[in-house]
Design goal:
globular, about 50% helix, 2-enoyl-CoA Hydratase, Chain A, domain 1, 8 strands, alpha/beta, six-stranded mixed sheet, single chain
């Protein structure tokens, strides 16, 4: 793998954006590589969570300039195809049933905010700068917009139209970030949250992520059928039975080390 460093430690998959010479900016290679990784991770029942970070001085500065130059003369159809590939990357990440925890620092610009929006928990170092920079170039944060609005509150719309740079504290207020602190504190929080996922029933976590993705599009009757059906199914499952019995017997469930 050239643009992503992939490692596995104690049932956690760690992905590190690895183009520090260009501030971990997106290009077609990184987009393809991330897409394939997230698709492959979906079938990994042995893993419990994903940790995402960036090598070098910043998490991700958005689109790579050379990649942008290569698209200047693209036709409408070619631009549409290129945008679809970017969307597919975010969709593969959003649809991943494994929880994703991200540690960001330095800068999170443009499409990098799409990565943040697709994570379940985000920790940010003090001093990290965020920006929906697309409108400065006469384009729009279109591909990431749905993912961002699904995570952030409505106040984020101002930043998407103004391209104003905002801080980690403002990102916290918007709901894009869950925790901010000094570098050591961020590292500890990153590790703490990943450890929490290791303590939980892995099937239950995955099924809960699936449930939360689907609930918003259901009517009341479908909502009732889906939620009551899931809890009943999990209660009689092998993992559910083990979890309930271990609680009643005051012992650790089998998935906890």
């Amino acid at each position: 793998m050239k643009t992503i460093v992939f490692t596995e430690i104690d049932q956690i998959a760690f992905l590190k954006l690895n183009r520090p010479d260009v501030r971990n900016a997106f290009n077609s290679g990184m987009i393809e590589e991330l897409t394939q990784i997230f698709i492959a991770l979906q079938s990994r029942s042995d893993l419990k969570a994903v940790g995402l970070s960036g090598e070098g001085k910043v998490f991700c500065a958005g689109a790579d300039l050379n990649w942008m130059k290569s698209m200047v003369d693209f036709s409408l159809a070619e631009n549409k195809q290129d945008s679809l590939k970017l969307y597919e990357m975010f969709a593969a990440m959003k649809n991943l049933d494994l929880p994703i925890v991200a540690a960001v620092h330095g800068a999170v610009f443009g499409g990098a905010l799409g990565l943040v929006a697709c994570c379940d928990y985000v920790v940010a170092e003090i001093g990290t700068k965020f920006c929906f920079s697309e409108v400065k170039l006469g384009i729009a944060p279109a591909v990431i917009s749905g993912f961002v609005l699904d995570k952030a509150n409505s106040a984020v719309k101002y930043y998407m139209t103004s391209a104003e740079v905002f801080s980690e504290n403002q990102a916290l207020a918007l709901g894009l970030v869950n925790f901010s602190g000094a570098k050591d504190d961020v590292t500890k929080e990153f590790q703490r949250v990943l450890h929490l996922y290791k303590e939980n029933g892995p099937v239950a976590v995955r099924r809960t992520k699936q449930l939360l993705r689907h609930l918003s599009g259901l009517n009341l009757a479908q909502h009732q059928e889906t939620t009551t059906g899931l809890i009943a199914e999990l209660r009689v499952s092998q993992e559910g039975q083990e979890g309930i019995k271990s609680f009643l017997e005051n012992r650790k469930p089998s998935w906890k080390v």
